[in-house]
Each structure stands twice: as C-alpha cells, then as structure tokens.
Design brief:
Length: 216
C-alpha cells in the first residue's frame, strides 16, 4: 500500500544528549508497527515528534503526503495520537469531549451511535456525564482512546495504550486495531504487553539508547 507516515532523518537532542538518533522510515497503510524497548530508550520522544507535539532537532515528517510543520492543519486532520497520560479539558464531561472532537473533525454524522458503541465497549457509557478528573487512571486512558476512535484518521499513534487497561478493554483494542489495519490505516504503538503484541498482525521494531532498529 501507499506510504502514509514518512519520517526523514528525524532526530532529537537535548543539549549534548541524543534522545533520538537520526532515523528514517516509511509506514504504509494497512500496517501495524509495535515499538518496544527499555525505559528511556527514546520511544516516547519519537512518538511525540511524530505527533507534532515535540519539534525535532532535525528531519521532516509527512502524514498522508503533507508536511507536519509546513502543512500542519492538513497533516493533523489525518493523524490521531494518544499519549500514555492523556490530558483533558476541565470544563467538559467525557461525552462532551467526544462531541467536541467529532465536531472539530466534521465527523458528527452518526456521532451518537458511534459514541455509545465506543464508550460502551470501553465500559465508560454509564460514566459518560462525569468529568475526566473524576475518572481513574485506566478510565482516563480509555477516554483518550475513545477520543481518537470517534474521529477519522489515516495514521494512529499510541503510547503504551494498554498500560492501565483491564483485560476486556485490551481485547477490544486488539480487535479495533486489527480492523483499522484491514481498512488501510497506518498504526504505530509502543507496548510491552505480550498478549496484545501476539494478537496483532504487526511488525516489531526495537529502540535502545535513542537508536531505532527496524530489522526485528
């Protein structure tokens, strides 16, 4: 399939410290990449650069053919990112968060059906009118996933998406990711969850000391 996420000579330095050594790669649609490595290997740094939340020291990123910094709006229309610790608006309930994201991405057609399905599968439907600060860590992670899944995207980036999920939610996420892959999305996630990795039709990349190894 056509390449959807492309990184060229991407690097990140903090002073003299190399958090991400220069690296280039391309991820086509219909592919899942699972990125593993020890704590501090540079995985989150890489994902933050790819999401547009951290400007890299060098290199370029294209999402769906659009440069992430020169054509940021067009690129981010096609990109969904869920951090390991999602952040939320303090004045919006969980359901209002989903509605806001759907409207922002012009995905309000059929919203109520989608929202009920996603929140129901994640066990959040009964708590939809609560504010996220009343949620447990696992519930907040589920809400972060729901916000990504309620809108259209071509590229999905997830940082440790199962770190606080219950087994039922892990099974749901596994099914969703495999379905998205079949529909042509490009997916990159970090994970140490062997059950999740085993259940995905995925390639396995490794990082250590800021260096990305793709021949795994």
């Amino acid at each position: 399939m056509q390449t959807i996420l492309n990184a060229s000579e991407l690097s990140q330095y903090y002073g003299d410290f190399c958090a991400l050594a220069p690296t280039s790669f391309a991820i086509p649609g219909g592919e899942i990449i699972v990125l593993s490595g020890p704590n501090g290997a540079g995985k989150s740094t890489l994902l933050l650069c790819l999401s547009g939340l951290l400007r890299p020291s060098s290199g370029s990123i294209e999402v769906g053919g659009f440069d992430l910094y020169e054509r940021e709006v067009e690129a981010k229309k096609r990109l969904a990112f869920v951090a390991d610790v999602p952040r939320f608006y303090t004045e919006l309930t969980a359901y209002e968060h989903l509605k806001f994201i759907a409207l922002a991405h012009r995905a309000d057609n059929g919203f109520e059906r989608r929202a009920k399905s996603i929140l129901g599968e994640l066990g959040l439907w009964e708590a939809r009118d609560l504010y996220p600060h009343n949620y447990s860590r696992g519930m907040r992670l589920k809400l972060g996933l729901a916000l990504a899944l309620v809108r259209p995207f071509e590229v999905l980036i997830l940082d440790e998406p199962t770190s606080a999920l219950d087994p039922q939610a892990v099974e749901y996420l596994k099914d969703v990711l495999n379905g998205l892959r079949r529909d042509g999305a490009a997916i990159l996630l970090t994970s140490h969850n062997l059950e999740l990795i085993a259940g995905l039709s995925a390639r396995h990349w490794m990082m250590e000391h800021g260096k990305l190894e793709m021949n795994v």
